[in-house]
């Protein structure tokens, strides 16, 4: 990979991290259109405040919907790398709660631990 591509990717990621709230709000908007009862969480290194610009942004979607449907709709709406989307049902949410810090994302400006 050339230096120019690495610099371009670093600039892109920095902009995403600088505007993370807007990106997360867009993800919540797409998810809530599909399933108004869905829950969306931020987890991993970003939720723990231990991330680098090279880190993925881990997002957990808890829904009864088919994961493929959810992922396809997010991709159609421009949600891509560095976002790493995990789609699970409520049963699997408990596994994430045991191993990760989860920050619930309810919408624009509505982030809670």
Automatic annotation (TrEMBL):
Molecular-function GO term, any one: nucleotidyltransferase activity
Domain Polymerase nucleotidyl transferase as annotated: residue spans: 25-81
The keyword Transcription regulation is assigned to this record: no
Keyword check for Transport: no
A Pfam family the protein falls into: NTP_transf_2
InterPro entries: NT_sf (IPR043519), Polymerase_NTP_transf_dom (IPR002934)
Full protein name: Nucleotidyltransferase domain-containing protein
Taxonomic classification: Archaea, Thermoproteota, Thermoprotei, Desulfurococcales, Desulfurococcaceae
């Amino acid at each position: 990979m050339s230096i120019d591509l690495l610099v371009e990717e670093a600039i892109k990621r920095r902009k995403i991290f600088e505007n993370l709230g807007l990106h997360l709000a867009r993800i919540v908007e797409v998810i809530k259109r599909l399933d108004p009862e869905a829950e969306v969480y931020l987890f991993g290194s970003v939720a723990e405040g231990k991330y680098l610009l090279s880190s993925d942004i881990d997002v957990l979607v808890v829904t009864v919907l088919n994961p493929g449907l959810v992922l396809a709709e997010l991709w159609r709406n421009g949600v891509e790398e560095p976002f790493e989307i995990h789609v699970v049902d409520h049963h699997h949410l408990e596994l994430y709660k045991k191993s990760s810090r989860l920050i619930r994302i309810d919408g624009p400006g509505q982030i809670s631990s």
